[in-house]
Every structure is written in structure tokens, then in C-alpha cells.
Design goal:
Strand content: 5-15%
Structural class: alpha+beta
CATH class of the largest domain: Alpha Beta
Order of helices and strands: HHHHHEEHHEEEEEE
CATH superfamily of the largest domain: bsu07140 like domains
CATH architecture of the largest domain: 2-Layer Sandwich
Radius of gyration: 29 Å
Distance between the termini: 87 Å
Strand order of the largest sheet: 2-1-3-4
Length: about 240
């Protein structure tokens, strides 16, 4: 049995096809009309969300952005998508956002379910490494946020939380104590790291490199123990400023 294979047509570099596709140039006018209608309609509805909804993005708000992006974009240039259908989707999405916002304002339990709770990452200058891992947050990301808050070492921090919005909030200690320095790893003059068993040239306060837990060496002797808080085996000299 003989099978006849038809050769594919040769490729043609066609600027008209590239710019206009299979639609006539007048279709650009329809795209402009669709874009204007959807843009103005969405603008009116988004105004109903309010400044709080625009300024604080929770997981639900992020879902709203994705849904609105799809509902707004498709009808602008797909002729097979009627404008009325797109407007209905946009209306429902915004109505859902308003409804959920109303419920979360009235119920703390609903707010926690939708937006989540703040999670404590630092307590009295010591990092909660388990919480940090649960929030999929790198230690350097935490340090960067603390530096932006004016923190130079962990002993200045009473509490640090990751908020439902993803921002890190900091409560400072009234009287800072020695703590792990927060210089980034790329600093040209990084602090000296002492492995477990090493002997620093002098005694003093030392902080765990991983969590910031502090110990005090009364005299020159080896750092012969792992961190009792997280089990890490590397130490830095704690600083006060």
C-alpha cells in the first residue's frame, strides 16, 4: 500500500501576516474599541475594591489579580469573546472580592482563614529556624529586611514577624544586647567565623551563625559546643552596635 505524503508549503516571510494575521486592518479599530470599553469598565469596578484592597495584597487578592488579568486581557483582542461575557466575569470577580472583604472585616476567624496570621521569626534576638523554613524564607532575606528596618545586629530585635502581606515587621528592644551581626555575605570585611572546637584570640560574647543564640566565654578557651538552640556548629563574635 502506497502512502502519498504532501509536502508542507514553503515558508514565506509575510509582514502583513505577521502584523495583522488573518484579520483585515480594520480589525485594529475593533481592538481599540474593546480595549477602551474593558479598561473603563474595569477601572470603575476596581475603584470599588478600595485603597485597602489595593495597598495590602493577601493570597486572595493575588488570586483576584490573576483572575482579572485573564478576564480583562482576552476580550481586548479575541473577537470570539463577547464583551458582555467578559464584563460579567469582571463583575463577579470584583463582587467576590467585596464580599470576602466584608466577611473578613466582620469575622476574625474568616480573616485568618483567608489572609493567614503573622508568624514570629525572631524572639529576643534569636531566629526561629523552623518557622523560617516553614515560610520558605532564606536567612539572608530576613537579614535584608532587618537591615532595611535599621537593625545592625540581632540583639536589637525583640520580635520580628512575617505579616500576611509578606512584609517583615520588627519590634526593637528598648535596651539592645550583644547579638549576631547582620552584614551581608558579600561584604568585603565579613566577620570571622569560628568552627566548633576553634579557640578565639580572646573571650567575650559569641553568637550562633545560624540562629543568633549567644553564649559568653569568660576566658580564652575553645568553642567546643554546638548551638544549644539549633545545633549549628559555627560561631561569630557578637556585637553591640
Amino acid at each position: 500500500m502506497t502512502m502519498l505524503l504532501s509536502a508542507a508549503p514553503p515558508y514565506v516571510f509575510d509582514l502583513r501576516q505577521i502584523f495583522f494575521g488573518d484579520h483585515p486592518p480594520i480589525f485594529l479599530a475593533e481592538i481599540i474599541l474593546r480595549t477602551v470599553v474593558i479598561y473603563l469598565y474595569t477601572l470603575v469596578l476596581v475603584r470599588l475594591i478600595g485603597k485597602r484592597g489595593l495597598g495590602q495584597m493577601s493570597a486572595f487578592d493575588f488570586l483576584i489579580v490573576i483572575a482579572l488579568g485573564s478576564a480583562v486581557g482576552d476580550p481586548m483582542f479575541y473577537p470570539e469573546v463577547p464583551l458582555a461575557h467578559a464584563m460579567a466575569v469582571i463583575t463577579v470577580v470584583v463582587a467576590l472580592q467585596r464580599g470576602v472583604s466584608y466577611v473578613t472585616e466582620k469575622s476574625t476567624r474568616a480573616q485568618t482563614l483567608v489572609e493567614g496570621d503573622a508568624v514570629r521569626l525572631v524572639r529576643d534576638g534569636v531566629i526561629d529556624c523552623e518557622r523560617l523554613a516553614e515560610e520558605q524564607l532564606q536567612r539572608e532575606e530576613l537579614f535584608s529586611s532587618l537591615r532595611l528596618a535599621g537593625i545592625t545586629q540581632l540583639g536589637q530585635v525583640a520580635r520580628a514577624y512575617i505579616e500576611p502581606s509578606g512584609h517583615i515587621s520588627v519590634l526593637k528592644r528598648a535596651s539592645p544586647r550583644p547579638g549576631r551581626p547582620l552584614m551581608p555575605a558579600c561584604d568585603p570585611d565579613p566577620p570571622t567565623v569560628y568552627a566548633c572546637g576553634a579557640t578565639p584570640p580572646e573571650g567575650g560574647d559569641f553568637a550562633c551563625d545560624a540562629c543568633g543564640f549567644c553564649i559568653t566565654l569568660e576566658a580564652v578557651r575553645p568553642l567546643d559546643e554546638a548551638c544549644p538552640h539549633c545545633g549549628h556548629t559555627e560561631w561569630l563574635r557578637a556585637v553591640e552596635a
